[in-house]
Specification:
With 318 residues, the chain is α/β, with parallel strands linked by helices. It is built from 11 helices and 11 strands.
Length: 318
């Protein structure tokens, strides 16, 4: 019953937002985000705690302003995704300002596949959708939502520009096949991962357990690793940025995986520092229950670029 109520609520809101032009949804999303910020004490506290750890040098007022901005952004994001659901390709393309497409096309020319990465930052679903229209369809590694009805709704949105979806659990073989066929695969690398497949990197000056799969598969296959972000632009538009590919390290073994993951994390942190109100601070990114795990134990390697026993079965949300 709870799942049905949630689904009906989302569908009803989706019908309503279709009545509005997209440039009006950001003010409406701001109202929605303000309401959630006011009443959702639990996630508001998590956001404040995370911001205090990430920006200890900033004043309480500054951190509070960022936290409120995050909720406002999520309110806008939800309404705009409901508006984009089912939108025609031409109408969607007219909302995009793309930067770095030539980098993606050059990456595909190498013939070893492309691994895109981002985080729960900005309009991450839009960045993936744009690739299906602007360059080539890609596959998205995701964890299904707890509500299967909403999961199917989101699945249809993710696939409407030609992309496909790979469930996170047991995904490695499918990802490897996609890369071998010189296709693109997208992953999010910004959430806590518990278990043997985690590698520890520095994120905002603190150790954070992160998936090792992106770096491990890149080292094994030679796939190009491209950071991909989508930012809001005036008038309900989106600026999609494909950054310069991440250069692989020259080190070997587990050290290479850790160093590669750190380089990717550094790019993500750079964007979050520039636009802190666009990242999902309501997730507990820094946890200390497994801080004793060593980086060398996080992944089993056999020589540079030879990766074994890499899985995607962690607890990080998509």
């Amino acid at each position: 019953m709870k799942h049905k109520v949630e689904y009906l609520l989302v569908v009803t809101v989706g019908i309503i937002v279709r009545l509005f032009p997209i440039f009006m949804l950001r003010p409406l999303g701001t109202v929605l985000g303000t309401l959630v910020y006011t009443f959702d004490r639990r996630h508001r506290k998590i956001a404040h705690d995370n911001l205090q750890m990430a920006f200890p040098e900033r004043s309480h007022h500054e951190r509070q302003h960022i936290a409120r901005g995050v909720f406002l952004h999520i309110g806008r994001l939800v309404l705009e995704l409901l508006k984009l659901r089912g939108m025609g390709s031409e109408a969607f393309l007219n909302l995009l300002d793309s930067e770095g497409e030539e980098r993606v096309r050059e990456a595909y020319k190498r013939g070893q596949g492309v691994l895109f990465f981002s985080g729960h930052f900005g309009y991450w679903e839009v960045s993936a959708l744009s690739q299906g229209l602007c360059v080539a369809p890609m596959s998205l590694v995701v964890r299904p939502l707890d509500n299967p009805m909403l999961d199917q709704l989101l699945l249809r949105l993710r696939m409407q520009t030609g992309n496909s979806v790979i469930p996170r659990k047991g995904s490695v073989r499918r990802i490897m096949r996609e890369l071998a066929a010189n296709k693109g695969v997208g992953l999010l690398i910004d959430q806590h991962l518990h278990g043997p497949d985690a590698v520890f990197v520095t994120f905002f000056g603190r150790r954070a357990a992160t998936t090792s799969a992106l770096a491990a598969m890149a080292l094994r296959t030679g796939a190009v690793v491209v950071p991909l972000f989508a930012l809001p632009s005036p008038g309900g538009r989106y600026r999609v940025v494909a950054e310069h590919p991440i250069e692989p390290p020259v080190s070997d073994g587990a050290q290479a995986v850790q160093e590669f993951t750190q380089r990717c994390t550094d790019v993500l942190e750079m964007y979050i520092r520039k636009y802190p109100e666009l990242w999902f601070w309501m997730h507990r990114r820094w946890r200390f229950d497994d801080m004793s795990s060593s980086t060398d134990e996080s992944i089993n390697l056999s020589g540079r670029g030879e990766t074994k026993n890499v899985t995607m079965d962690g607890h990080a949300a998509s």
